[in-house]
């Protein structure tokens, strides 16, 4: 009788361990699939003659996008990646349609005047810092301001960019975001902290990404 009881107890414990192991393996498998999915998306991204974003900025952006989408903080299958590790003289903003897995836009984009000269290297979440903030944002509503059509941004990372709306950090057009400005000044113009974009394509970009799409500003300092 004692042997039978011990045998049953061991079977019970073993079944629990197996169940835990199965769940653990299942979780690992899901995580692996997620990474694999991101790699596959990157490998098959339709460039439409644009350059690819860096793999690391794309991977980080997509990982965050999935989490934010799951929480209901963003709605659209559109993601905007701004890579502030790249020279401001280069096109370092990408708008990607995840439904078609294609790049819609690649553009110049400004950083804040106190964030750096040609390269961005100093960031802040404080009012009147005139610095850019990194991390994940949800795009908000469109309005007409002193820069014309503009897009409000809501920072989703506490202490990193969550003061964006109260700081007035928005996406807007600026004539200092142009190749001609770079040619005359050896660097792109700078904003007061806003991700300013070229006037010629500002309305198209804002229209595509408004109303709760994901915007991610990357720099190695945040990773």
Overview of the structural elements:
The chain has 223 residues and is of the alpha+beta class. The chain is 36% helix and 22% strand. It is built from five helices and eight strands; from the N terminus they run ααβββββαβαβαβ. It has helices spanning 2-43, 55-71, 164-167, 179-185, 199-209; strands spanning 78-83, 93-97, 102-107, 135-145, 148-155, 170-174, 197-198, 214-218. α4 links the parallel β6 (170-174) and β7. The chain is globular.
What's the layout of helices and strands?
Blueprint (H helix, E strand, L loop, with lengths): L1 H42 L11 H17 L6 E6 L9 E5 L4 E6 L27 E11 L2 E8 L8 H4 L2 E5 L4 H7 L11 E2 H11 L4 E5 L5
Parallel strand pairs: 1-8, 6-7
Antiparallel strand pairs: 1-2, 2-3, 4-5, 4-8, 5-6
Per DSSP, what share of the residues sits in E-state strands of 2 or more residues?
15-25%
Low-confidence stretches: 1-32
What overall geometry do the principal axes of the alpha carbons give? globular
Q: For the record, give the distance between the C-alpha atoms at the N and C termini, rounded to a whole number.
A: 60 Å
Number of strands: 8
Average of pLDDT: 88
Question: What oligomeric state best describes the polypeptide chains here?
Answer: single chain
Helix content: 25-40%
Structural class: alpha+beta
